[in-house]
Protein 1
Amino acid sequence: VIAPLRFDSAPFAVGGRSVAADKVAEDLRQQILAALTNTGRFTVLDRDLGGEVAQELDMISSGQAPRAEFGKLGQAMSADVVWVGKIASFAYNRHVRKLQTSDRELVSYSGGWAVSQKLVNVATRQVMLSESLRGEAPSVAATTLGTGVDGAQVSEGMQNDIASRIVAGIVSRTFPVTVISREGDAVVLSQGGQAVREGARYRLVHMGKEMFDPQTSQSLGRVESDCCEVVIDRVTPSMAQGRLERVQMNLEGLQPG
């Protein structure tokens, strides 16, 4: 379930005009819903969240909800994983400075966004992901030519950036990119699309034994050993092809995954 995004200020100032915060939040939610559905890895439930559930989501977003309440929340929404997010800032401001030698004005634009997100596994009551994301919109340098900006276009660009970063974070945390095939130095990775970039270089690790906290019995994750680097040669919507470089361990006998 993708919960409606929270926000403090309404409206947002974008390019000298006001944009309704609730519209930005709902547009973002719909983009995230569509993008996660298109990955083919999730069944995304478009739930109408009532008042009681909304209060629980507010508590999770603020970090005040006891973990014991996560299971109740999942049962109420028939969900395994719940995502909650909050828009901390969303603005593209117009800056004006008068010239001392004339009546003309110097006008510039700058701004960006900040969003926090949490991903909760309601079955295990664990917070799988908790982070703050930030981004900047392309600025417009100071000029006296009266250059304006398309506020709707800027807003759409920032929303696309936010949705892309959020979805990438969710997918990478729940379905980490893995090597599914290797022939010599040539490998095929389990994800493509926005998960990896053609021409980019990434560090690969070998996942070892899972470790558990002796007091709480909760998983601490698996031991990672540096393996090598992979350079991405080709990206498709569902997978990527690359080549291994700077290999630091014996790869013979290692199973894909």
Note: The chain is about 25% helix and 40% strand.
Protein 2
Amino acid sequence: ENDLVYFKNINPTEFLGYNNERSESKIIQIFNLDNAQTDFLNFDKEGYIVLNQTAFYGESGGQIGDSGKIENQDFTFEVKNTTKAFGSYFLHFGKVTKGSCKLNDDVTASININKRDLIKNNHSSTHLLHAALRKILGNHVTQKGSLVNDEKLRFDFSHNEPIDSRFIKKIELLVN
């Protein structure tokens, strides 16, 4: 079965997160935990909500997605993570903690700002680390992968030998 058919009649999610921490949005798609389309999610149920526009960053390039809340006067949906389907549709995964949400509801979607700020700091640090590694070890150092979340960063890179402790100290000083 081609999952793209689920998104055939809806426009891609517009990402507003570079300049906004919240958005006034509309629910354009709902999926339950079996990945089946549904018109609603009741209290205490988990699922995925797709909005027409969002400030939530979708997990990408080793960086985790945003968390936060999607809500209106009738319900609250706690977003635990945000991912992307087919690069264009943002899936807000979470649980209804108050009321019930339904297709076409008008909502306010707000990211967890503190968590976003921590992720942004670690994201910037990966760029600083990469630059420091290239300056100290040489331009042959290239990024091979990473993990960026609100607690830490991991930076995978290529280098042809173990790194001596004096170079590690130089890299740490330069990054800091």
Note: Residues 113-137 form the longest helix (25 residues).
Protein 3
Amino acid sequence: MKPLLSVIIPSRDCLAFLPDAIASIRRQNIGAEGIGAVEIVVVDDGSSDGTSDYLAQAAAADPLLRTIRGPARGVAAARNAGIAASLGDLIAFLDADDQYLPDALTDRLALMVADDSVALTFADVMSVDPQGRLVGYQFDYWPLFRAFLAGRSGLVPLGENAFAMLLAEMVCGTSSVLTRRSALEAVGGFDERYRISEDWDLWLKLARHGAVWCSTHRATRYLVRPGSTSRNMAELARTMRQVFDAQVPDPGRIPQPWRGVAQARVRIAEAEVAMVEGRHLAAMGRHLSAFAAAPSLVTAKKAAADGLRLLRLKPPVT
């Protein structure tokens, strides 16, 4: 039987977390055929921690668990390989150190089965630290998106400003995403040139391709781990700039307030890199530019702090 849904899990040296990720998928109750309607495709991206042996045993006991092993090529290439090997018309993504919460996909699966114009759906995410302590919730963190929801619950269409919303704020967590194979094929999947921000780039492409909906149901438990790829600020700032410039050749076409917030977010990332590297004048310039795009007290304070650092670096007057 062809699966209704394929869940793609890229994994590199995540054996400590991977069994729980797989188990969280198998706990879902999806469709009239039950959990058997879900295929799991795990892409072992060059692991050296025993992942391949574990997956061989797990796949032998689960006919709908498929595994791919290859050299380390990065998460974008791993997800693309998983998509290519999968069979479902609907595709979801779950990172190996994350877990689905109960009924993570049910409402959005029904929506996407009923309406083939929907290219992308995502849901709220609960972030926790390695000790299991709550860090926060995705939708609560981003002020523009919180204002857009305005207390609504359930399934919500993003409408004509979906691209601008996803450009401005990182509300779309990868491990909550549900999309469709035809849309991924139409936009070319993940861009393998990016080590970080490859997911943001894809969501923007999908937002241009079809309708985008969100669910306020908290779908995913996201683990915030020190030293993860997303914590590499220099690489993050570089790829954010590349994605922004590629996806928004004419910023003036993006409506406010999303345009200013998106521009500010990229410039703040660049400012943080400059500050770490000791380029305090450049940091102040990027913070001031961010403030000009989207004025905020936080950005103003950061620019002022940059100025104070510059004053301290000046040689004393003799």
Note: The chain has a mean pLDDT of 93.
